[in-house]
Amino acid sequence: MAEEERLEEQFTLIHRTNSVGPQWNYRGHFWSARRPLDGDPPTTVSVRCSQCRKRLEFRVQSTRAMKQRVRVLKLCAAASLLVSVLAVIACIMLDNAAGEGLVRPGDDADTSQAGIVFAVILAMTAGVSAWSLLLTAIGQVGVLGNGAGAASLTKHSVERVVD
Ligand SMILES: [Zn+2]
Asked: What's the pTM value of the predicted model, to 2 decimals?
């Protein structure tokens, strides 16, 4: 019975009340959900938003599934960060090679310039991806759907109430 009580958790469902920044205003309410046991599939719960009166469906994951999702997101963030760092190193090496005259004029120089541009774009894209994945991992509470758990500005958001 104590195990059943442990699975009951409290969350907040908050609704963004403005569409223009620079500051975002949220209002919401508390709601409770019972997490499935580890190994069980997510349960679907329906919650009515106290602000817009919309009925929203969320999938509540087990604790183990939530932790596994966080691990995968952090691993993907680390991989993206590694790609970004390697692209910066490649960019520096290509630039040094061109500066030291190791790249012959003509087609090789054009290839080197294209490689530098590609490396810069790859570094920026992978860096932004790493940051987004890390923010998504940090924001996981084991509740998915309707923007919950996404690292973006959504109309509704779910947060876990920690005792
Ligand atoms: Zn709402």
From this structure: 0.80
